[in-house]
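Many introductory courses stop at the sequence. We go one step further.
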Amino acid sequence: MPSLIYIVLGLLAGGAAGYLLRKKIAAANANTLEAKAENMLTEARTKQQQILLEAKDKAMKYMDDAKREEEERRRELKQTQDRLSTREATFDKKLLELEERQEGLRAQVEKVRVRATEIEGIRAAAETKLAEVARLTAEEAKQELFKRVEESSRQEIGDRLMKLDRENSDEYEMRARRILSTVMERYAAATVSENATSVVELPSEDMKGRIIGKEGRNVRMIERLTGCEFIIDDTPGVVTISSFAPIRRQVAKLTLEKLIKDGRIQPARIEAFAEEAKKDLAIELKKAGENALYELGITGTDPKLVSIAGRLKYRTSFGQNQLMHAMEVAYFCEMLAKELGADPAMAKKAGFFHDIGKAVDHETQGGHPEIGYTIMKKFGYPEEIAYCCIAHHEDKPKTLLGSICKVADALSGARPGARRDSYEQYIHKLEDLENIATRQPGVEKAYAIQAGREIRVFVNPAAMDDFGAYNLAKAVAHDIAAEMKYPGEVKVTVIRETRVIEYAR
């Protein structure tokens, strides 16, 4: 029991001692935290003072800088104001000088106006006095003067005009001849005239009877299907096919060749071979168009237009093959364009397609120039190329390319042997040339020479002077160009000859 009391007392004593010790440690810790807080507060106050001092220093520096800038700006502003003041003073001085000059000019203008009024009065008085002396008004005197000057200078003016026109014509003709001779020398192709007949060779003479058939039914069937005339006469070994339509003539020739090769000549076979010949010819026409375009180097052409162009292979004009003519014109256009500074590629296309309307003119209403223009526009060609279909038949084409195409067309058609006219057409052309000349007033006689390439007109010298002969030549040339169609050109020569005869007795 006593030990238990001692233990309890010991525990109580230990607890009291621990409490006191803990309290003492807590008091010591409290003193330490307060010291730290005090130190921190002191440091914060010190930093605050340093920051304030630094802020004051910066503020003073900024104020000094601002004052310096303000002084510089004031100095610059003062300099600007001084310059403006100087300029203003200069402008004021110049303005005063200008006003003084203006006043001086006004005074001079006034003096000139007064002097002009005085001169006008003097001139009016002089005109009045002259009118009294001449008994003519000013307008009448002016008209009389103009009339006399016109009469005295009429012959001189006419001679001068003729001289200038002759000089210009000679110069232009020399340049044109040089260009055309160069082009013709560069392109010299053979020329072959087309005929209106085709000949088919026969393997034997008995084939003629088989072609004719019983009571002529076979030959009538072929003629009806092809639209051609078959001439089966005594000429040995051949049958002649006659037609002015080359495509029909070629269809008839192909049909007859197929029938001869097959050997069975009867109406049913004739009809079948005629259709087959048309298909073969269509393929041949397309190949002809492709070959022509390939030779010319023209690409990007619509296949339908190629087939239309190929039809020109079996189209002639005055005996000239139109596909060859189109290729010649294309070459001529290209070379002329190079000489004249135009686009050679565009000129070549325009030249090749200039007569494209002739390929379908027998199937379409209208003339081939308008048909060709419509075709070219339909296939998307530009106006400049399409217009050449019309331009090569106009007297004065509106574009350079049109003029080139017209000249190239004339070169190809007018070459010796390129085209041929019938005897009746030839005589009719010469008569028309002479009639156009003789209907002019003052013409005594007119003769067409050199196959219609030149016409010589004789005039009455008493009824017409040199200037009138000059105008007559122009009028006859204009009427020939407007009323007639011909390849190349027609030279008009007006002859005014005065003969004085006297006898010495």
